[in-house]
Amino acid sequence: MPQPAPSSRTRLGRHPERGDFDRGTIDAILDEALVCHVGFVHDGAPVVVPTLHARLGDVLYLHGSPVSRMVTTLAGGCELCLSATLVDGLVLARSVFDHSVNYRSVMVFGRARLVDDPAEKLAALEAFTEHVTPGRWGDARTPNERELKATSVLAVPLDEASAKVRSGPPGDDRVAEGTSVWAGVVPLRTVAGPPEAAVGVPEGSELPVYVEAYLRDHA
Amino acid sequence: MPQPAPSSRTRLGRHPERGDFDRGTIDAILDEALVCHVGFVHDGAPVVVPTLHARLGDVLYLHGSPVSRMVTTLAGGCELCLSATLVDGLVLARSVFDHSVNYRSVMVFGRARLVDDPAEKLAALEAFTEHVTPGRWGDARTPNERELKATSVLAVPLDEASAKVRSGPPGDDRVAEGTSVWAGVVPLRTVAGPPEAAVGVPEGSELPVYVEAYLRDHA
Known about the structure:
The structure is a homodimer.
Chain A: E1 19-20, H1 23-32, E2 35-42, E3 45-56, E4 59-64, H2 69-75, E5 79-92, E6 100-111, E7 113-114, H3 118-132, H4 145-149, E8 152-157, E9 160-166, H5 173-176, E10 184-192, E11 196-197, H6 209-212
Antiparallel strand pairs in A: 1-9, 2-3, 2-5, 3-4, 4-8, 5-6, 5-10, 6-9, 7-8
């Protein structure tokens, strides 16, 4: 996989020590984050839309209704920036100033290409399904012609991408002496609650293993 | 609190039934979401940056280093769009096409104002601290002059804001008959793990109640 070099846009001005251009790091964050936020310019002003994404190799796929603002704008080939962020913990320091958040985020700059090829489109739809719930594609009914027409898929190359990561304890050693306030990290994670079966699912139906043991952390 | 009316930008083209312009709904989502994603145009192209926010009444505050790209660009008064998103669950339908995600998101359009007034700035810094960890402000050392200078605060009015919410089971009744695949909702939530004390915190120190019982859900 190509390792993107820092561009003038992905090079970090603040906290350069948190920057990471390793594609393994970038891919892991994109794969774990359920949604990303896509920014583009519409009618001269920025718009930021939360949306699902899925990665296949060096391409990040987005999808939506063919008539949505996001799809019609991005399909025109304008520049976009998307960001996916995982919040891993709260960093409580002795001083307010040194409080922080542990996070892993990815930023991608580029332009999207509307996917025309039916095979690539179907592979992307499988990737969305498996991105959200690994194992689901084989169980659910696959899209028919009408449904395929009602969904547009966009492909964004991962050529200009970067990760930014903060981890570890608060960086407030200089004020630690002589204070008694608790300081440290409160880790956060996403967990699944008890599944809620839809109407029509027979009482006592066995849960698929990917629902029973759903884990967002792909690591 | 003013109820923003739908503007041409916040009016929903897709799934208008998911739109909500009630400030109570908007505020609850902003208050629960730890971070938001701010979009602006820099050097002619969109940039989307994850950042902490905090709401005080009708104003959403952002902050950062005075020399950061986000602060210097937004302080210039350019248009911005920010989005905060909570993912509440996975919606597994019988058909791939009807799969979805339960979410609550807010989109805010506007321009930021650099906060000059020292009292407003301090109130915003308290709001950031309390947004992340309610109860923390009274325990940690408050910012000194040097730290205040190293932090810029931006104020964004909530005049042009909207929420978009999807909840409930999959909408795939038409394909439910005759299929045996499990369908329903897998609820997701953010939970705190065991706190990790920083170096220098005495062994056996009592945890603050806001760490011991940390709950992200403000509802």
